[in-house]
From TrEMBL, chains A, B:
<keyword id="KW-0805">Transcription regulation</keyword>
<dbReference type="InterPro" id="IPR000847">
    <property type="entry name" value="LysR_HTH_N"/>
</dbReference>
<dbReference type="GO" id="GO:0032993">
    <property type="term" value="C:protein-DNA complex"/>
</dbReference>
<feature type="domain" description="HTH lysR-type">
    <location>
        <begin position="1"/>
        <end position="58"/>
    </location>
</feature>
<dbReference type="Pfam" id="PF00126">
    <property type="entry name" value="HTH_1"/>
</dbReference>
<dbReference type="Pfam" id="PF03466">
    <property type="entry name" value="LysR_substrate"/>
</dbReference>
<dbReference type="GO" id="GO:0003700">
    <property type="term" value="F:DNA-binding transcription factor activity"/>
</dbReference>
<comment type="similarity">
    <text>Belongs to the LysR transcriptional regulatory family.</text>
</comment>
<protein>
    <submittedName>
        <fullName>DNA-binding transcriptional LysR family regulator</fullName>
    </submittedName>
</protein>
<keyword id="KW-0804">Transcription</keyword>
<dbReference type="InterPro" id="IPR036388">
    <property type="entry name" value="WH-like_DNA-bd_sf"/>
</dbReference>
<dbReference type="InterPro" id="IPR036390">
    <property type="entry name" value="WH_DNA-bd_sf"/>
</dbReference>
<keyword id="KW-0238">DNA-binding</keyword>
<dbReference type="InterPro" id="IPR005119">
    <property type="entry name" value="LysR_subst-bd"/>
</dbReference>
<dbReference type="GO" id="GO:0003677">
    <property type="term" value="F:DNA binding"/>
</dbReference>
Length: 312, 312
DNA sequence: CGAGTCGATATTCAGAACATATCGGCGGTG
DNA sequence: CACCGCCGATATGTTCTGAATATCGACTCG
């Protein structure tokens, strides 16, 4: 039995007339008679009563037609569902990101995405760059936002584009000696207790800092001591109560509370770029849609993406 | 798109391998490749990722396959539903009957039917013979049980079989002069107030009675007076409280209460037969099943039915 | 009783689905 | 690094089936 039989039976039930039903189906009358007869033979049951006043379904026909309607509805739903999934209008996007991405990049991109693709289920999880890279390679994420291009095993399977640049700023409590300064020098920082992201989780940032502060070794080994904090709000909170000098990207200003001061670091120090990564072989249309929106919003991202997508 | 495409896609998703899926489908590998390709072309979306480790559905493929499974399930349900309806295992039977049918005939027949065909929805409605005949012709009933073969316009479209015979008995209260008698004569009845079924609703019975009592006219015109009662229990109730002498079929004994006496009428008077009627052109398998059961239970009905059914 | 309508049947034809044979690409292996 | 084997895609021929045309038989209606 093919779905054609269902369509023919439904048309016949609707028009109650072989000739008109066949015309509505775009075929001649004899093939319709044949197909209905074949269907009835296969089922071993008469589905229609041919009377002088028209063709009417039997009890068995009624039962059959009710199911047939649902079956055809499921089939057309299969087509439309597949199409929507292929166009990225539905599906799932699992996104891992570092906290600072929540300050500037994600709010606008996510807002647009949610408005454009309301039926896409979004999975959002804040995590370190290292973890998001690993999760991406393990297939647990579809997109990762972190600092610095992913490195190490498997990184060649990922595509990364720069979606933002930041320079280093220092955050101090209002009572701190630096509070009145618009800028602090690297020399000044060397004697301070520093609040930074954990070295193991953000290796790129940690390496930058270590180099910046004139040491080849780990940041935690610095004189003056180091406190590791996982996210922007913790850094700001610790700085506000005088624990030390928080160091982080300039976008920290967005989250700055009234009781802290943000100072430029002099000379200006560029941080590893905010980088968006995804699996090179990932053909998900949802991902493509998200990248499209990112492309629109972040001029300069476009070319980098084009180069990769064009190579597919 | 045909259901074949759904079956092929599901097989491919199950085996994750074109060759094995084709073997499971009983076809060669090239046609499977072709049909899947045609399906993907029609949908405008890739449904499967062909990798070195196997064939896996894409996101769109997952969405499609979920619907496809349901569609095919509906199709096979359509087949089985139609088959069950055709075999009379499901469906509906609307039955109109006179009250006395509830006393002997229906209890056993209905019991068997409900046990054999639990999924058939039964519509049971007590009504007069006249009304059940009209409802049968109007298509509001599938089967009618009454007294006397239906007559009048449309009766030739009905098939009737005798399913029971009864003779007339008289029902009186325990205090009635007849109470001690085993039998009463027609002469004795002539002076009594009688309780009978309404003439308009049970014309066959009324005609019999009128003839019996030696009058060409209507029963209500009889000296002694007449009360019309619709059902057996009312006749018995009125008789028990001394309203008069109830007249009805012998099966009234089944419903007789302790405070009434049932007397044979002498000479014995045969009542119009209990008749089961249905539309001659009704091919409903549920009706056929009900008739089968009736046939098994009522010997003698068989030949009458065979004659009709054989003529189809 | 003849005309008209409707569904079934017969026959032919075209297209689609399938089978056989072969090619191209990708991994694994000596 | 070349070779081999596996797998899916492609090419080509064959078969089968669904559809069109022509016609028939049954029933209705004027």
């Amino acid at each position: 039995m093919e779905s054609r039989h269902l369509r023919y039976a439904l048309a016949l039930a609707e028009h109650q007339h072989f000739g008109r039903a066949a015309a509505a189906l775009g075929i001649a009358q004899p093939p319709l008679s044949q197909q209905i007869a074949a269907l009835e033979r296969e089922l071993g049951a008469r589905l229609f009563d041919r009377t002088a006043r028209g063709v009417f379904p039997t009890t068995a026909g009624e039962a059959f037609l009710a199911r047939a309607r649902r079956a055809l509805a499921e089939m057309s739903a299969a087509v439309s569902d597949a199409g929507r999934a292929a166009r990225g209008e539905t599906g799932r996007l699992r996104l891992g990101f570092i906290g600072s991405a929540l300050l500037e990049l994600l709010p606008s991109v996510l807002g647009t995405f949610i408005r454009d693709r309301p039926e896409v289920r979004l999975g959002l999880q804040e995590m370190s760059t290292r973890r998001s890279t690993a999760a991406l390679l393990a297939g647990e994420l579809d997109l990762a936002i972190g600092r610095g291009a992913p490195r190490g095993a498997g990184a060649e399977d990922l595509v990364s584009v720069t979606v933002g640049r930041d320079h280093l700023v220092a955050v101090v409590g209002a009572a701190h000696p630096f509070a009145g300064q618009a800028r602090v020098s690297l020399e000044q920082l060397k004697g301070q207790h520093l609040i930074v992201a954990p070295a193991e989780e953000e290796p790129t940032v940690a390496a930058w800092l270590a180099g910046l502060l004139g040491e080849g070794a780990e940041v935690p080994a610095r004189a003056g001591g180091v406190t590791e904090a996982w996210d922007a709000h913790t850094i700001i909170g610790l700085a506000s109560c005088g624990v030390g000098v928080g160091l982080g990207p300039a976008c920290l200003r967005v989250a700055a509370r009234p009781d802290v001061r943000v100072c430029e670091v002099s000379p200006r120090v560029e941080l590893p770029e905010l980088v968006m990564s995804f699996r090179a072989q990932d053909r998900s249309p949802v991902l493509a849609a998200f990248l499209d929106i990112t492309r629109e919003r972040c001029p300069g991202v476009a070319e980098r993406l084009e180069r990769h997508l064009g190579a597919r």
